[in-house]
Amino acid sequence: MGDYALTTSKLCKYYGQNQILENVTMSVPSKSIYGLVGENGAGKTTLFRILAGLSKPSSGTFSIMQSVSLQELSEARRRIGFMIEMPALYPDMTVLQNIFVQQIQYNGHKDASKAISVLQIVGLDTQQNKKARHLSLGMKQRLALAIALLNDPEILILDEPINGLDPMGIVEIRELLLSLNQTNGITIVISSHILSELEHIATHYGFLHNGKLLREVSSSSIPQSSDGLEGFYKDMLEGGK
Ligand SMILES: Nc1ncnc2c1ncn2[C@@H]1O[C@H](COP(=O)(O)OP(=O)(O)OP(=O)(O)O)[C@@H](O)[C@H]1O
């Protein structure tokens, strides 16, 4: 995969007059868990949407697994599992049927054994016959993650994947992500508001603030003190580091 799974160079995005991303130059090492930290409105989702091909940058370039051309990028994206927005679920279909819909859209056919295996990975196999309308938010999050895993991705891009999960659910997703990274070698890019949670799993961080990537560091640069990542981030925003 090369040294970097994803890179961006001087990426800018405007909506009308508003500059949302400003010269974002980012490098996500292969096989890392890269925590993207940033306040509400910092531009995290916008950046992920560009990588996913859901939005175009106003200027700048990016690469996914060394692919840069439009055609190569669309191939490379097939090797990424995205969880950016909640996938459109059919409320009157079951969990399993919703997985089948995704498989048919993506590959043209359904694959029941693969569907069950991703539901097992995210701990939803016991709920496979439940209608989507009856799922809790946390269960929907797991289903979105299951969908992102359907095509054995080499990279996972996860926007706030633990939003809405209870503490036990958060621990389970954390362990799942660690295992996907360590056992399957999947590079994971993850945004979360819960810095203490990112701290449990991230090997690298990028700090996005007002559309600018202030700094990238490896987790070894974060002090092991009680306010570790939170304190580091606060000091950085205050210009202390
Ligand atoms: N389609 C759009 N049109 C206009 N402005 C947009 C659009 N999408 C996002 N924005 C604006 O871009 C800015 C960045 O939004 P974005 O969703 O990328 O931030 P974020 O870091 O993901 O925040 P959050 O953590 O709240 O999800 C916000 O000010 C938002 O209002």
Automatic annotation (TrEMBL):
Q: Which GO terms describe its molecular function?
A: ATP binding; ATP hydrolysis activity
Family matches, as Pfam families? ABC_tran
Q: Which InterPro entries match?
A: AAA+_ATPase (IPR003593), ABC_transporter-like_ATP-bd (IPR003439), ABC_transporter-like_CS (IPR017871), P-loop_NTPase (IPR027417)
Q: What is this protein called?
A: ABC transporter, ATP-binding protein
* Keyword Protein biosynthesis annotated: no
This protein's record includes keyword Nucleotide-binding: yes
Query: Which residues does the UniProt record annotate as the domain ABC transporter?
Result: 6-235
Stated family: Belongs to the ABC transporter superfamily.
Q: Which UniProt keywords apply?
A: ATP-binding, Nucleotide-binding, Transport
| Species per Swiss-Prot/TrEMBL record | Marvinbryantia formatexigens DSM 14469
